[in-house]
Amino acid sequence: MNGQNEFQALDAFLLKTLVDPAFPAQLAVSGSDYSLSWQALSYAITEWVIKYRQLALDPNVPVVLYGHQQAEFAVALYSCLLHKIPYVPVDCIYPEERLQEICTLASAPYYYDIARQAFIPTGLTAQPLQQHDLAYVMFTSGSTGKPKGVQIGRESVWHFIQWVGKDFHLPDNPVLMNHAVFSFDLSLIALLANLAKNGHILLNAKENIAAEGWLTGLQSQKVSAWVSTPSFAYQKLLSPQFCSDYLPDLKVFIFIGEVLNKALVKQLRRRFPKAKIINSYGPTEATVATTVVEITDAILASDTDLLPIGTMMPDSFMEITAEGELIIWGKNVMRGYLGLDEENAQKLLTRENCPWRGYRTGDLGYSTDYLYCSGRNDSQIKLNGYRIEISEIENRILNISGVQEAVVLPLKKTGGGVLRIAAFCVSRRSSEEIKSELARVIPPYMIPGQIVIQEHLPLNPNGKIDRKLLDAQARVS
Ligand code: AMP
After folding, report:
1. Cα dihedral angle (251, 234, 147, 380), rounded to 10 degrees?
2. Whose C-alpha lies nearest to ligand 1, atom 1?
3. In whole angstroms, what separates CA 174 from the centre of its chain?
């Protein structure tokens, strides 16, 4: 099935699921604001679309959705999917200025303020997207110092919905724990699996997760599927209640977004002996996830340090270059970055006789019985699951007046993974001033924990900035 048939199949699926739900009385979404049954969700979508239609926008003009883990966010997002409105999700962890920047890059004349349940004019002139039938544009950290918009077509979303319903070991009518913000595509695993499996998604706001009693809430909701980054699950291990005696309905853990290591899987095995543990991998540019594998005892017992990322989704294949870079080819590959022709030329590939686009991931890996991901070939990092371009932070610091030089370093843990970010600057501004300037334009997770002001940056014998020395200095100070 391809082209128009795929769009029709997605439309029919969304109509069935969201307009004529199979389990109307069952809860569909519980957010930080309210809960909705499937029937109530259907009504809420109708109301949302009536409001949206009053704006009389061209169908290819994107709508920015701005909020944090409310059920209203899910209503807006599902409305956009059902009514073919390309949406741009932005979480409130992003400062106002970044919201404005994203609205400008997307030429969005309105953003929908989830908390106020209202469309807010941005003062920008509407400009329809050149790409048609887009599901969403998701902005990620960009190396040039501006976020870059990944354009995902409706055909890719449909492809993912079908796969997530089949190969992620989800129970029927799952109760899905989602912690990821909607501007991180990890959240789409739970949001779309909710549709594929007639589930109930639990949206967890940051402040609720931090509060005492959060696990008790999951227990009373009978959570059965956990979707998170490995870092998030690691933090939860600190609570003795995070175990199968306390959460007896929890049947599957789905991990994605960063390296899943054996130590975490072993601890989870002890806490949840019967739960399945799934590792999935994929960049935003390839629609949420591309590979998946259940981590069995046999895999865990293997003598490699790395766990596999799995096998490919249908209608796709992985090419591995001589340098070891992973290139994803498939129906799931993005339509391109919004307005970034040069970057598209570097990252997107086409090949004669291949119906799909290819995407150069920048990830390094290899293939044996499964695929493995062993690192990056550039300066993109993951910190607690968040994707960060180190050069975006560097550029943001250099844009602050009074800063002459800046070097940003991810400090690695022994055994891989990033512990924290440090920055070294030559500047007449103090580190506190730099931090507060940064807070206006980038989210808290991108702000270096340590900013050291120096008179000059040390050079190595080749005349380059001595990053090794700075790394050592950051570790002792
Ligand atoms: P994002 O676009 O934020 O989803 O980040 C995608 C990147 O996260 C990938 O290109 C990988 O570098 C990394 N990543 C995602 N999932 C995994 C995984 N299961 N194992 C190792 N790295 C991962």
Report:
1. -110
2. 283
3. 21
Closest CA to 14 of 158, 125, 127: 158
Mutate to test the pocket of ligand 1, among 227, 231, 258 (most ligand atoms within 8 A of CB): 258
Give tens-digit pLDDT for 425-470: 999 999 999 999 999 999 999 999 999 999 999 998 888 899 999 9
If you measure from the C-alpha of residue 373 to the centroid of ligand 1, how many angstroms do you get, rounded to a whole number? 9
Token digits for 85? 């409105």
Residues in contact with 414: Cβ distance below 8 Å, sequence separation at least 6, in sequence order: none
Instruction: Identify the helix (H) or strand (E) that includes residue 321.
Output: none
* Closest Cα to atom 20 of ligand 1: 259
**363 Cα: distance to centroid of ligand 1 (angstroms):** 8
**Per residue in 3-26, pLDDT tens?**
788 999 999 999 999 999 999 999
pLDDT over 80 (residue 477): no
- What tokens appear for 48 in the block? 């949302």
Kindly give the distance from the C-alpha atom of residue 50 to the centroid of ligand 1, in angstroms, as a whole number: 38
Ordered by start, the domain boundaries in the chain are 3-367, 380-476
**Tens-digit pLDDT profile for residues 184-211:** 999 999 999 999 999 999 999 999 999 9
Please give the CATH architecture assigned to the domain spanning 380-476.
2-Layer Sandwich (3.30)
In whole angstroms, give the CA distance from residue 328 to residue 283.
10
In this structure, which topology does domain 3-367 adopt according to CATH?
Rossmann fold (3.40.50)
373 CB under 6 A from ligand 1?
A: yes
**Dist. CA 149–CA 335, nearest whole Å:** 11
Residue nearest to ligand 1 atom 22, measured at CA = 258
How far, rounded to the nearest angstrom, does the alpha carbon of residue 321 sit from its chain's CA centroid? 26
Closest CA to 25 of 34, 36, 33: 36
Is 279 near ligand 1, meaning CB less than 6 Å away? yes
Pocket test for ligand 1, best of 143, 232, 253, 259 (most atoms within 8 A of CB): 259
The pTM (predicted TM-score) of the whole model is 0.95
**Residue 269: both structure tokens together:** 């095995």
Q: Reduced to 3 states, what is the DSSP secondary structure of residue 185?
A: coil
Atom of ligand 1 nearest to the CA of 285: 2
**How far apart, in Å, do the first and last CA atoms of the chain sit?**
59
The three-class DSSP label of residue 23 is: coil
Distance CA 302, CA 393 (A): 38
